[in-house]
Amino acid sequence: MLGAARRGGNPMVERRPFLTFLSHAVMVLGVLVVAFPLYLTFVASTQTSQAIVQTPMPLLPGGHLIDNYTAALNGTGGGSGSKAPVARMMTVSLISALIISIGKIAISLLSAFAIVYFRFPFRMFFFWAIFITLMLPVEVRIGPTYKVVSDLGMLNSYAGLTIPLIASATATFLFRQFFLTVPEELVEAARMDGAGPMRFFWDVLVPLSKTSIAALFVIQFIYGWNQYLWPLLVTTSEDMYPVVIGIKRMISGGDSEMQWNIVMATAILAMLPPALVVMLMQKWFVKGLVDTEK
User: Fold this and answer.
1) Band of the pLDDT at 54, cuts 50, 70, 90?
2) Pair 245, 235: CB distance under 8 Å
């Protein structure tokens, strides 16, 4: 039995080719279901607007890829919808997503650090007050939040787009749970070396939390990039449209008036930054989730 195990498997586990084929077939089918709409979007972004609305729509890429993407980036497409340059909208989305993700992580790290390592009155009360905000849907507090942002003159600004979304009870909870697993010996060693609270935070806790930070950055970046409801309320100027709002503003009027090729090119461009972040940080993202569960 030991020899069989060394040769590559447990002899108690039977190899069933049919089940292997079935599992692979289901996986391939799932990939096709997810990928086919994306493929159609890409094909539409390379066609003319007339070719898209005809029946049946072409299933092979056309020859207008460069023209359509240039028109989308520069805002020179036709149609009755918004003609805001997609390059500007993607810049707004990128800045907003970075501010939201970095701000959430920074505030959550500091709040979790204070809750775990400092003793002050009503410490657990404040923690549970933060945690209970998870039970409040955005729609419940969006009206009062809009009133505050409007009174402070932060409409059509990066501050208005990001500050109301910059706190995260989920990230605070995750960092708190991780800090509770840090051995007490590290705290004692830092204290004996004369390290103050902030030095212990920067030199010990932050390096230990880097995989969790990376995983949360990916999640929060995508969250910030895909924001729709809040930017829909606080932006009325085309200069401050995030790309998700820009796609919505581009869709107006009847199908005959729509430049669907430009809309689809914008949709493809809007998918690239989140996909790039996930691909570049995939290793850290997976490692962060696994380490968090441990």
Assistant:
1) confident
2) yes
Residue holding tokens 């905000």? 133
Do residues 241 and 96 make contact, with C-beta atoms less than 8 angstroms apart?
no
pLDDT given at position 141: 83
Q: Sorting pLDDT into bands at 50, 70 and 90, what band is 270? A: very high
Instruction: Indicate the domain borders of the chain.
Output: 86-293
CB 213 within 8 A of CB 287: no
> Residue type for 183, please?
P
In this structure, what DSSP letter does residue 257 have?
G
- Decide if 205 contacts 117 (C-beta within 8 A): no
Residue 66, phi then psi, degrees to nearest 5: -65, -40
CB atoms within 10 A of CB 206: 13
* Phi/psi at 56 (5° precision): -80, 155
**CA proximity to 71, closest of 263, 271, 268:** 263
The fold adopted by the segment(s) 86-293 is MetI-like fold (1.10.3720)
Give the amino acid at 1. Answer: M
Q: What is the pTM of this model?
A: 0.83
| Residue 87 to residue 138: CA distance in whole angstroms | 29
C-beta of residue 156 within 8 angstroms of C-beta of residue 236: yes
